[in-house]
Design goal:
12 helices, disordered C terminus, alpha/beta, single chain
């Protein structure tokens, strides 16, 4: 192929990448190499109940103008029992090729849904992820060094995932419901506020105060620190916003301490590889630094698109299998 032809192929639409979570849908029109040409957003998998095909068609209609068809690769809760079609969890350890091979195929091969992963975690309990596996796969593409050796990856969010990756395979992971715990305590308890919900501002000096308070007495159980979010408001030391930031600092510091104990330096090295929204990865990087660890950060959306592009490439290398109509 000539240089001009290669450049044209890089901007020619080849497939649609979609991260379809419980509450939000993000679609991207991509070239074969994973370059994002356009984006669209829509309702989450829960709200879309029974209308997934129609929603996908509506949001992508303008992209399909002039194209006979474009395949779509979707990850997230769209593959759960509340989504479009159930894509079973693959037991760890799992390599990228296995993820692609286990995709559920819909619409005569035009839609593929990425499966989730399962494992027995560090503490012997069943654990699951759906959507994060695609971000991990994308990070292996964007940071090739992660495909060799053993590494600890952290994907912060509503349910933060700590994943052990070894020679390009996800071997195990551990889930901490940090974001969900914050939301419940901040919006549905008196620890942070007494009135209607407010818009919380993450990070900042009071978040750092929470990290520092935890670091001063790391042996104290988290439950014995949480009431400070209310008592320091009652004493006049905190405003409601400051109390929320302090709470997030305590929760993230506790999560980081527990994960580092489960995955010590001799096992995974000194650097933790963060994947997620920039604001969240910055908060986790601060928490890791407070506990003596370094961090690298990868944007979660970029990782997701790269992972979906990798699945698309792997799928086009084999004959499609039409599992469902």
């Amino acid at each position: 192929m000539s240089m001009a032809g290669a450049q044209h192929a890089e901007v020619e639409p080849a497939f649609i990448a979609g991260d379809w979570g419980s509450s939000h849908l993000r679609l991207h029109l991509c070239s074969a190499g994973g370059l994002v040409l356009d984006s669209a957003e829509g309702p989450g998998a829960v709200e879309a109940s029974g209308r997934h095909a129609a929603i996908l068609q509506s949001l992508t209609a303008r992209w399909l103008s002039g194209h006979a068809a474009l395949p779509a690769v979707l990850c997230g809760m769209v593959g759960s029992n509340i989504g479009w079609a159930a894509a079973a969890y693959l037991p760890c350890p799992v390599k990228p090729e296995q993820i692609a091979n286990a995709c559920v195929t819909l619409n005569a091969g035009l839609v593929r849904i990425v499966p989730g992963l399962s494992c027995r975690n560090r503490y012997g309990a069943p654990d699951f992820m759906r959507g994060e596996e695609t971000q991990i796969l994308g990070s292996l593409i964007l940071q090739p060094a992660l495909a060799q050796g053993r590494h600890l990856l952290c994907l912060p969010g509503t349910h933060t995932k700590w994943a052990l990756v070894e020679d390009g395979a996800v071997r195990e992971f551990l889930t901490a419901p940090v974001g969900e715990t914050f939301a419940v305590l901040a919006d549905h308890s008196v620890l942070v506020r007494d009135g209607p919900p407010e818009k919380w501002v993450a990070g900042g000096p009071w978040f750092e105060s929470g990290l520092q308070a935890f670091a001063r007495l790391p042996e104290v159980p988290l439950l014995h620190r949480l009431f400070e979010c209310r008592s320091r408001r009652l004493s006049g030391e905190f405003t409601t916003q400051q109390s929320a930031a302090y709470l997030s600092g305590l929760l993230i510091a506790s999560d980081v301490r527990g994960a580092l104990a489960a995955y010590p330096i001799p096992m995974v090295g000194a650097t933790v590889h963060l994947i997620g929204a920039p604001q969240l990865t910055a908060m986790y990087a601060s928490a890791l630094a407070a506990q003596g660890r370094t961090a690298s950060a990868q944007d979660g959306t970029a990782a997701s698109v790269a992972g979906l592009a990798a699945v698309h490439r792997l799928l086009t290398q084999r004959r499609p299998r039409h599992d469902q109509p």
